[in-house]
Predict the structure.
Amino acid sequence: MKVINTAEVPVAERFAFWREVTAKVWVPCNLRCEPHLESRFQAGLRISEFGPVQASLMTATPYSVERTPKLIRQSDPGILMLVCTVRGHGVMTQDGRRTEFGPGDLVLADTSRPYRAELSPDVPGSQVLVLCLPRSLLPFPQRDLRRLAGVRLRSDQGMGALSSQFLLQLARHLHELGPSDTARLATLTLDVFTAALATALDAPDVVPPQARRRVLMAQIFSFIRRNLGDPQLTPDAIASAHHISLRYLHKLFHQEGHTVAGWIRERRLERCLRDLADPRLADRPINAIAARWGFGSAAHFSQVFRGAYGLSPGQFRRQCAQATGLCAPT
């Protein structure tokens, strides 16, 4: 991962430095910052490569960018930018479409045509995740992609919601990812990018079957993680939520080398293990932690915990407490 921050640059030179950085990382644009804000301008980037997709997490104080016809004639790499807002608000205008965006929203920009975007001056520090991909790698005609430029993609349901959730999680954990992680996520990142656009274009058949399966599995995994604390999280409930048959759900997990119930149990155990090791939760009863993550029976939880880790929840908690010099409740 590459990290760039204006904190290392003299205040008077920061905005000019940032103009050069963004031109190299993305494409040349005219940057503008209000005079009363430029003296306090700050920005930073974390850049990772996910196969053909470049992911850049930008944190910045308010400013605006404009991609002009002149700049396009000077440099046109044919890049599409999918922007996911993590924090803050802003506005993008392209092809006569003006789109306001906020946390979780996805907006597509085509760098081969003029556009303008700005971060809201009412938010002192915004954060956006920008995915860049050569347009030639996507299975869509240029005329179809043009329909989406400058449009906010729906992030409240279906594939749009999955794409938003995936990108928000990617933004939160980007700093933790090593080379093996980025290699493993490369295909899924491209699949999510493609599936989000295919859904917006109402062209799901454009996405290859294997890619659709990977995206569906990512959606199911995300759904399970969000609902681990629900004791009614059953295979039937998961299949119903994703409009697939119970048989097909089991087939998907079998292809991944898991069972549905086993995968849920493993994720619940991981959350319980984390909470039991957390000194801030030392006063919380073990059965309360088990219930928090969907275990309806304390005895059953103790049994599966011992089967997974070789000791009881109480023994594990005491070991963690001894390692940190704390006293754990029995």
